[in-house]
């Protein structure tokens, strides 16, 4: 006395509705396992501590009068390069100042 296929499929359908699982009689891949699982993003973000940035501390608390030595060195390097003519070019104020305007294609 084997049960008919119709009764088995109706039993499986009822079981999926009772246990709140996806009804998938053909067995195609749905990705339900990954959709059910917890998201990984918040756990990964909370794993690493927040980084302390010296420039943010200096901006937030100017009364401490702290100096970022790396930033000061960078300013000196830029000034030295500009003095030698090796710095970044000045930004064009108008369209006529632009270098692209003088080039012919």
Structural descriptors:
105 residues; elongated
Tell me what the structure shows.
The protein is mainly alpha-helical. It contains six helices and no strands. The longest helix is centred in the C-terminal third of the chain and has 16 residues, at 69-84.
Major sheet: none
Detail the poorly predicted runs. Answer: none
Give the helix tally: 6
Q: How would you state the average pLDDT, rounded? A: 87
Helices and strands, in order, run as: HHHHHH
Helix content: 40-55%
Number of strands: 0
Question: Ends: how far apart?
Answer: 87 Å
Radius of gyration: 33 Å
Quickly describe the structure.
This protein is mostly helical and 105 residues long.
Write the layout of secondary structure elements.
Blueprint: H1 5-18, H2 32-36, H3 41-47, H4 54-60, H5 69-84, H6 99-102
């Amino acid at each position: 006395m084997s049960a008919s296929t119709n009764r088995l499929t109706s039993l499986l359908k009822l079981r999926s509705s009772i246990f709140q699982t996806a009804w998938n009689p053909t067995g195609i891949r749905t990705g339900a396992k990954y959709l059910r699982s917890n998201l990984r993003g918040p756990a990964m973000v909370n794993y690493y501590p927040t980084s302390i940035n010296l420039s943010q501390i200096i901006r937030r608390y100017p009364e401490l009068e702290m100096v970022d030595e790396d930033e000061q060195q960078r300013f000196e390097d830029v000034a030295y390069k500009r003095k030698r003519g090796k710095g970044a070019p000045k930004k064009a104020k108008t369209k006529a100042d632009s270098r692209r305007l003088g080039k012919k294609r």
